[in-house]
Amino acid sequence: MDSRSIVFTKETEISGFWWPADDPEQRLPGKLVFSPAEGLTLELMGAFPHDKFENPFGVTVLGESTFKENVTLHQVYLNESRTLGSLPGTGLSTCVAVRAYVGAHIPNSTDVEFKIIKYYPFSIEQWLRNKTIDYDFPPGGFEVKFNNPEPLSFKLTDDLTFGLSYQSSGLSINPYGTDINFKYVPIMSLESKQPVSWNRIGELITTLNNFLSLPIMEPVFSLDVQGTILLPSTKEGDETQEEVEIKVLLPLYDTPVGESPHPVEMLYTFDDISEVFPEYLANWFEKEALLGPVYDLFFDSFSGKRTNLVTTFLNYAQALETYHIRTMEGDIDPPKIHKKRLEEIRSSVPEEYKEWVRENLISSNRKTLKMRLKELIELNPTVVNGRAGDHDAFIKRVKDTRNYYTHYVPTLEERAAAGGRLKGLIITLGLLIEGLLLYQMGFDIPKIQELQRSRKRYPPVWY
What we know:
Elements: E1 12-20, E2 28-35, E3 39-45, E4 59-65, E5 70-82, E6 92-102, E7 113-122, H1 125-128, E8 133-136, E9 143-146, E10 152-155, E11 160-168, E12 172-173, E13 180-181, E14 184-196, H2 198-216, E15 221-232, E16 241-249, H3 270-273, H4 277-286, H5 288-299, H6 309-327, H7 335-347, H8 351-360, H9 369-379, H10 382-387, H11 391-407, H12 419-441, H13 445-454
Antiparallel strand pairs: 1-2, 1-4, 2-3, 3-6, 4-5, 5-6, 6-16, 7-14, 7-15, 8-9, 10-11, 11-14, 12-13, 15-16
Helix pairs in contact: 2-5, 5-6, 6-9, 6-11, 6-12, 7-8, 9-11, 12-13
């Protein structure tokens, strides 16, 4: 799909006719209204039969715009239906939908297979720092030149290719020639050798956005999503699939506000890693299967939902435990030694207690949170040195706080962190996770320590 086909639309209205996918005779005039903040609302003149909405997973509604463009609404739910006066057959109804595909009719959502997805990752222009505008002041005038940066493309995995290009959001000129509005925005793409489902596309976009959020320290939003999908051929007797280009309308769970931080406030910029960018991004995607739960637990606080302090703390503690389990030795002693120990213990207790002992010692060779934190801190000790000082005291405070909030041990209430102290733990744990993710990406420990030591700000979510 040519990036020139990208149409930048934050709010959209599509008028036309609409009908349930399984009942094309129920055609009603209406209008689809979309905004990233409010989502998708279908306003109809009339109403579909109520039994169409009995499916708890919603229904699929197809549409044809006044410009003969096909539209598919998936997971549609009835919101309101009312009659107008006493006239038979008249009325209004509104429905809400989870997402819409503009450009194709797709009666079954499981039929959607994506080859390419493209989108505008809002808030990364400052991170990329690509100069697209040059200007000069010749005698008697003012000249502006727009430069399209070189596109970038490389393989992430055997099946996945990443692309970065730039596209104009449109040229707007005052009819009197007194002002001009023009903007280049980055377009990122992921192309899969093997077509993948929408759910998998969502996971891939999230993985890419998390990679971008780490240095920016702000959520990255996916706007103006477009894709190339495969659908069964409409030609009679043709069993092959054909490529169809669509626009995906998706609501945002949080609305972008303002612009991203200034580059000097970021952990690092694209310029800092431009030579190793393909390698670092490939590492990030390659380790998604292993570290996916760690990504989710850490970046959930970057999503813009502003979770409370306790939730963020528990997510970070679990992320560190999960990271350790998946990347480091998890047993205290070698299996043979532990097995011998268990056999000796079971043989020394009365018969009626053997099963109880067996069940309660199943995980007795697994390292505790205290042990795991100690080993993780040793990888990058400057994080705790600079903020908490004594390692053992810090680990004990984290352990007591986690146990109090997770298991509710009343005797730990006085030792559990709250308020400002809990924020302090969150920042330190966040720095630990940040460093570990940078390490997995490809940074070495000295460079990670330099980045964290010279940073100008912490992510706002840590406050």
